[in-house]
Queue: 2 jobs
Job 1
Amino acid sequence: GRVGLITLNRPQALNALNNQLMRELMDALEAFDKDDDIGAMVITGNEKAFAAGADVKEMAVKTTLQMMDTDHVAVFGRIRTIQKPVIAAVSGWALGGGCEVVLSCDMIIASDSAKFGQPEINLGVIPGAGGTQRLVRAVGKALAMEMILNNRALTAQEALHYGLVNRVVPVGDYLNVAILLADEIAVRAPLAVRAAKRMINHSSESFLADGLAEEKQVFYNLFASEDRKEGMQAFVEKRKPEWTGK
Ligand code: CAA
């Protein structure tokens, strides 16, 4: 019908968001946004993972300068320019950049196996694509602190309880429920739907631009630290990191 469906498809890496995948995701969203036959979009992954975060193997070799020169996380910001509603249909892992993509969507349908988290602290960095800003708005400061400072992941039921997701449904149904919701919205008055989305986002994003710019800078700066190199190298080598505070 009038729903554009996008499936993240790098199952061998739990849909880790490398540059190519992010570019293709944004190109697809922007193409649907321009298409008059489409009224709403759904982004999904597979049952095991929506996305386990930015691609750590791609980032592990980067310096601060390279991260800043290429503006590594800028591609995530393109979701904010999409005018039509975007629904995330999430099952399994939604971690790091994956959780940040979900937080940038307008509504979230979760399967009962969904898990939401910001594990960047394990890599010696912080969320760099909106996590520190949007999570506070989504679940409140106390829980956001625990999730980002201490890698607390939320189960689907917890995410529902704290208002992060719209609905939790059995794993066999989450995609259909998301598509049905998108289908209902897609036939509503297009101009009013877009205006409503813009204004609702405005209410929560008024001070967001400053926060996002600052967050990105701090994220890039951390790439200069020994701990960041150690954290990412340890992930690649499948061992525990040894922190030195340098
Ligand atoms: N980047 C690159 N590869 C990843 C990945 C990631 N974020 N997450 C998983 N993979 C890969 C694994 O390396 C593994 O590949 P190989 O078989 O080639 O080794 C494959 O996907 C399957 O993963 P696991 O064997 O680790 O699966 P598991 O079930 O044992 O564990 C997991 C699942 C707990 C999600 C674990 O994979 C994990 O901790 N992943 C990393 C999560 C993470 O740190 N995300 C944050 C990234 S930083 C970020 O997103 C920054 C930002 O704000 C933009």
Note: The chain is about 50% helix and 15% strand.
Job 2
Amino acid sequence: MQQFIDSYDFTGKKAIVRVDFNVPLNENFEITDDTRIRRAMPTLRKVLEKGGSVIIMSHLGRPKKVDAKFSLKHIVDHVSACLGVPVKFADDCMKADEAAAALKPGEALLLENLRFYAEEEGKPRGLAEDASDDEKKAAKAAVKASQKEFVKKLASYADCYINDAFGTAHRAHASTALIADYFPDDKMFGYLMEGEIKAIDNVLKHAERPLTAIIGGSKVSSKLAVLKNLVGKVDNLIIGGGMGYTFIKAQGGKIGLSLHEDELIPDALEILKTAKEKGVNVSLSVQTVAGQKFENDTPQRIFDTHDIADDWEGMDAAPASLENWKKIILASKTILWNGPVGVFELPNFAKGTLQIAEDLAEATRNGAYTLVGGGDSVAAVTQMGYADKVSYVSTGGGAMLEAIEGKELPGVAAIRG
Ligand code: AMP
């Protein structure tokens, strides 16, 4: 049975908490962005305040073996400073029995990087490149078998389990999903997870209508599942960014040198057909800011998006598109934004994306629910200073993308199930 942090009695209990402390470090092992650490603090603090202790577990980077470069020891001091208590460190996540047993209420222990063990991800390591299929199968079976012991060990440290790592919720790893089985009546989401799940539900399950999705970014291929899922759910589908040109080409438009994927034209046509059948309003770009080279200072020209000259490349949304989109956005009660509508990393082609961020902020002020998530639009709203002007900015790129593809996230299912 799923529990909730606010109603759970942590008095004298040890909570093992999966967080996402996969923070960027510079060459001196200093944290360059501690957002992920700060976002986990409300959950950790709550357990300590309510008389419990925490055993914190995370991965850092993608080590393939024990590797000091990816040690969580680099972040212990910072986690202690954020949490306001000295955090102890177990330098092997499989040998933390004593440290865990010694924890008193109000104390915290951080386990070393879970991914120092192949069992965390459950994928074999060190296989020869020319390994036969049988060898691969045997290696996979071996790691799956030892994964059970790994999970059991982690679970043995604690009385209850909290998952607050939304960034890895789309992975069925030992610490993100499998461990939940050991706590059938003592498993719960942390506040960050709860916030992310509510945000997704606000859009996909009980959205106030009209519901609009703005999908941008570079390629249709990376957002195909998102588009296919959303086209059955939304009232308006705004398709912008590089991926929009595949749709324009599918409709017979001339797109010059703009990014496009010919092999996805049938999919684009299928999405447009489904939208029509379901009465979904698809809004493509009508006007484009094009450049001659993929660089910031290249000369710019505005074209009708269906008629871009041969040697020009569409790189941003132009005013006529943005006006159409603004009208749709401001008439919506719920808006999901995924993917920039232009090459926003080049400041001269960031205006369209900035305008969308402004429109979302205005819609939010007017009472709409706005969620930004699953890719570069998060970087865009954050860089542009709009992160606190929308209703929710997701922390989980891949996890949010899979959620809006309509997939059930293993980390969520493990707690709910
Ligand atoms: P995604 O990760 O799929 O959300 O894609 C984000 C990337 O799409 C960013 O790096 C943008 O620069 C890129 N992008 C957006 N619009 C365009 C465009 N018109 N041409 C090329 N790349 C674009």
Note: The chain has a mean pLDDT of 96.
